[in-house]
Amino acid sequence: MAAAFETQNAELALAMEAVVGRSGVITERADMVPYLEDQRGLLESDARLVVRPATVEEVAEVVRICASRDVPIVPQGGNTGLVGGSVPDGSGEQVVLSLSRMNRVRSIDPLNFTLVVEAGCVLTQVQNAADEAGLLFPLSLASEGSCQIGGNLSTNAGGTAVLRYGNARELVLGLEVVLASGEIWNGLRTLRKDNTGYDLKQLFLGTEGTLGIITAAALKLFPKPKEQCTALVAIPNAAVAADLLGWLRDAHGDAVTTYEYMQRPCLDMVFTHIPGAREPLDSAYEHYLLVEIGAPGAASDMGARFEETLAGAFEKGWILDASVAATEAQREDFWRLRENITEATKIAGASIKHDVSVALTDVARFIERGSEALAQVMPNGKLIVFGHLGDGNLHFNLNQPDDMEAKAFLGRSVEISKVVHDIVVDLNGSFSAEHGIGRIKRKDMAAYKSSVELELMRTLKRTLDPKGLLNPEHVLP
User: Fold this and answer.
1) How confident is the model at residue 10 (pLDDT cuts 50, 70, 90)?
2) pLDDT for the residue 381
3) Closest CA to 209 of 110, 95, 324, 323
4) What pLDDT, on a 0 to 100 scale, did the predictor assign at position 6?
5) Which of 421, 426, 423, 429 is nearest to 358 (CA)?
6) pLDDT digits (tens, 9 = 90+) for 239-270
7) Which of 98, 138, 193, 252 lies at a CB distance of 3.0 to 4.6 Å from 165, suitable for a disulfide?
8) Nearest-angstrom CA–CA distance, 439 and 17
9) Is there a contact between 437 and 420 (Cβ–Cβ < 8 Å)?
């Protein structure tokens, strides 16, 4: 059997090489490691080979070859996900299809405010292409220097600007997709209005490559803010956050783009593990917000009005202290505190992560209930709470205690996650706000999704991928 499998692999590799060239196929296990590594180090992973097509036609032919041999495919972008959505299982029977060579900006239309890019473009490349045209592509993540736009769209990424611009799916006008049959659907329309039947692109946004492989996207662009104001704000508790956001919106309307929440342990961890991080205010507080507003047109009084708004919130007791960035360097210092939380917690030790969302008005209640519950389950655990509070999305993570080995700590992840997710669902929230499902959260799908929802999803899967070869053992339980 082993000899037969090796022969099949060799034949498969040759067939792939005929399509993408020798340099586009990786067969040695040591060379495949970067494509197999789960970012959190929790999952076993192996593959037959890694194939790296450079055009949509090559992707289509690779898919046809795999379909003819019943070989499962795991599409992969930058492999920066946190739920194992882009890594194969440990069987060694799956092929990793990397989109990294499909990295061209195909076109940009500044008058139509649209940009067409291939799936392998790194997010910063997409942002820079818009910026060079004097426009803005607003999707922004801590991993933007390595994540790829195809992966962002396949997981419906969120990030720090959802409050103003929406999730990734709301930034897409059209898609190019390779189907499980190897057919190419060219839906790269750049129209703002197209009411001709089903909105097919939504089938592939947020479905993690289980229904089709995104190879290119037509994206919405926006006016670039010509003036920005950024503040690091200390608040007495999370309960005032909803009132404060309403106050800011009353004063500045849709200009409020960022509303990020951080508890004190997040900053302490950054100060400990990230060189150059500095205390943002004169005193230490328990709760912080990073607030940013931006105006597309010249508005020379925006800074003064922003400070007046914060002063009014201070009088109401919603703000304890605040610092408005006076320079771009100070603004970047504020952002580094927020963006380095994940890296700092990774350095600090093992982490059990929860990417959840509840209604803004339920955020404080969730934090209180979740904190109390985890304190009972693991009293010495280090609770790290931060996230995109403006849209109700929190990263409610528990880092390993100092007196506990990582393996023993992670061994309790199912128990601890159930505690958190039960509270979230009780508050009509979601156990996955922006990270997706991948391999890690499939059991949560079975536990919390209704049978009607799951069967509808399975029906779509059977219809679009009847052989079940696209990202199997991902998303659906």
Assistant:
1) confident
2) 95
3) 95
4) 79
5) 429
6) 999 999 999 999 999 999 999 999 999 999 99
7) 138
8) 29
9) no
- CA distances in angstroms from 409 to 74, 353, 413, listed in the order given: 30, 12, 7
- First-to-last C-alpha distance (Å) of the chain: 29
Q: At what angle do helices 363-377 and 413-426 cross, to 10 degrees?
A: 150
Asked if residue 148 lies in contact with residue 77, where contact means CB atoms within 8 angstroms, the answer is: yes
| pLDDT the model gives residue 9 | 84
Q: Are 64 and 177 in contact (CB under 8 A)?
A: no
For the chain, what is the radius of gyration of the CA atoms? 23
Q: What's the pLDDT at 300?
A: 66
To which residue do tokens 């020379």 refer? Answer: 300
Name the DSSP letter for residue 470. B
pLDDT score at 12: 95
Q: Which of 387, 294, 279 is nearest to 339 (CA)?
A: 387
CA 121, 123, 126, 127: dihedral to nearest 10 degrees? Answer: -160
Predicted confidence band of residue 332 (pLDDT cuts 50, 70, 90): very high
Reported as a single tens digit per residue, the pLDDT across 404-419 is: 999 999 999 999 999 9
345: part of which helix (H) or strand (E)? helix 341-348
DSSP string, 33-58: HHHH--TTS-S----SEEE--SSHHH
At 257 the pLDDT is 94
Structure tokens at 343: 């890296």
Select from 295, 407, 397, 301 the least CA-distant residue to 341: 397
Phi-psi region of 87 (alpha: psi -120 to 50; beta: other; left: phi over 0): beta
> How far is the C-alpha of 460 from the C-alpha of 55, rounded, in Å?
27
d(CA 119, CA 213): 9
pLDDT of residue 2: 67
